[in-house]
Each structure stands twice: as structure tokens, then as C-alpha cells.
């Protein structure tokens, strides 16, 4: 059974989300404070964190930034009243897998959770497939089963969302991929307002893949993985 931690200081919202998740077949625990959630994560890592941003004892964004340093592949959904596009972009820059604004539909939340777990489980069940790419100066190796990416022997740590994007682009090396295709294949939604989220993830990925020019931007259209399979 998937275990979900819900960090939300509003008692009614927190208990409602926990109840709805449990009725949908998940194990869920609620926390009003970041310090309690941090302690619980240290004792047992959940399968997903649903995180409010404005919490009495801290900033949800900064808490997730801290958690992602130690658990980069831990899925995160922000559930917040912060509706500005800049806040949503910041959430994705920090490595969240989804961003849901209040007021929200509990049914939609559960559907988003289910979609996220489908992506994670599908990725985890991939066959062991180690693929090597080259850009003439550097060597990039992707191990699908271990979720491991190295460049010239150095391991690059990616978030779960970044891994899905790199995996999708590299499996279509040389093919021009639109932002909407990346949203549909890697995030299960295709809202136009979320296309900037793709750009944010690509920027973060490029910063991590600092050796070589692996992802080409095709202005006004999308991206192309330029590594050549060895």
C-alpha cells in the first residue's frame, strides 16, 4: 500500500485529504507542522509528500528543497493557495511532480496522485537497459533499471520528473519533441499554461548535464536530444 504524508496546517483540509486518500486505497498521515513531517520522513520515507507552502513553522518550498537534497526521487505534490505563475514555476524548479492550487477538487487530487504513481511504477518496472550516448567529447550513460545517469563516469542526480524527461527525450534521440508532448508523456496533462514548466525542467537538467550540449532547443517548437547512441 502506498504511503502518503500530507503536510497541511489547516485541520479541516488536512483531515479531509487524508480521509479521501484512505478511501481511495492509500495509507495517509497528516502533519500540521514541518518539524513533525521531517521527523516522520527520517523514520520512514513515504511514497509521496503532499505539501502546503504556507505552514506556521516554516516555508514549504524551502522544506522540499531541503528534502530533495537527500531524497531526490521522492515524489512531491504542492497543494497551496499560492496561485501565481511565478510560485508554480518555483515549485517545479524545486523538483515537485505536480502543483495543485486551492480551492481544489479532492477527486482531482486523487486522480493526480494515481497518475503520478502510474508514472513512477511504470518507470520502476522498465527492463534493465543501459544505453550509451556520445557528443564527440563526452560520454553519457543511462541505466533505466537503476535510474542512474552518468557523464564521463560522474553520476548526475536527477529528480523523478527530470529523469522522466531525460528518459523520454533520449529514447527519441534526434527526434524533435514538442513541449505538449513532454507534458502528456511525462506528466499526464497538457495544459498550455504548464508549458513553461517544461522549460523550467529543461533549464535545471541542462545545469546538471553541464558537460556537453545534450539537449537542443528548437525555438517556438520544443526540444531535441542530440546525443548519438554508441
TrEMBL record:
Q: Which UniProt keywords apply?
A: DNA-binding, Phosphoprotein, Transcription, Transcription regulation, Two-component regulatory system
Please state every residue range assigned to the domain named Response regulatory.
3-117
Q: Which Gene3D superfamilies match?
A: 3.40.50.2300, 6.10.250.690, Winged helix-like DNA-binding domain superfamily/Winged helix DNA-binding domain
Q: Does the keyword NADP apply?
A: no
One Pfam annotation reads: Trans_reg_C
- Show the GO cellular component annotation of the record: cytosol; protein-DNA complex
Q: Which residues carry this modification: 4-aspartylphosphate?
A: 52
Q: Which InterPro entries match?
A: CheY-like_superfamily, OmpR/PhoB-type_DNA-bd, Sig_transdc_resp-reg_C-effctor, Sig_transdc_resp-reg_receiver, WalR-like, WH-like_DNA-bd_sf
| Name of protein | Response regulator transcription factor
Q: Please give the DNA-binding region boundaries.
A: 128-227
PROSITE patterns tied to this protein: OMPR_PHOB, RESPONSE_REGULATORY
Q: Which residues form the OmpR/PhoB-type domain?
A: 128-227
Q: Which GO terms describe its molecular function?
A: phosphorelay response regulator activity; transcription cis-regulatory region binding
State the species of origin. Answer: Bullifex porci
Amino acid at each position: 500500500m502506498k504511503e502518503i504524508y500530507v503536510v497541511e496546517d489547516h485541520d479541516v483540509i488536512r483531515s479531509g485529504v487524508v480521509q479521501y486518500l484512505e478511501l481511495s486505497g492509500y495509507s495517509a498521515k497528516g502533519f500540521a507542522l514541518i518539524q513533525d513531517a521531517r521527523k516522520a520522513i527520517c523514520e520512514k520515507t513515504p511514497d509521496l509528500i503532499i505539501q502546503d507552502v504556507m505552514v506556521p513553522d516554516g516555508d514549504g518550498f524551502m522544506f522540499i528543497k531541503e528534502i530533495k537534497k537527500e531524497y531526490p526521487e521522492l515524489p512531491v505534490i504542492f497543494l497551496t493557495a499560492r496561485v501565481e505563475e511565478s510560485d508554480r514555476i518555483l515549485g517545479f524548479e524545486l523538483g515537485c511532480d505536480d502543483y495543485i492550487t486551492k480551492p481544489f477538487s479532492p477527486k482531482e487530487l486523487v486522480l493526480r496522485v494515481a497518475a503520478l504513481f502510474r508514472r513512477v511504477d511504470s518507470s520502476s518496472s522498465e527492463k534493465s537497459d543501459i544505453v550509451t550516448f556520445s557528443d564527440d567529447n563526452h560520454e553519457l550513460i543511462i541505466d533505466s533499471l537503476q535510474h542512474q545517469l552518468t557523464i564521463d563516469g560522474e553520476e548526475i542526480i536527477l529528480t523523478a520528473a527530470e529523469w522522466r524527461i531525460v528518459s523520454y527525450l533520449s529514447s527519441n534521440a534526434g527526434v524533435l519533441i514538442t513541449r505538449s508532448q513532454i507534458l502528456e508523456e511525462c506528466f499526464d496533462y497538457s495544459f498550455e499554461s504548464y508549458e513553461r514548466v517544461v522549460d523550467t525542467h529543461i533549464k535545471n537538467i541542462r545545469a546538471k548535464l553541464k558537460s556537453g550540449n545534450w539537449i537542443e532547443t528548437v525555438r517556438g517548437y520544443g526540444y531535441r536530444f542530440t546525443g548519438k547512441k554508441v
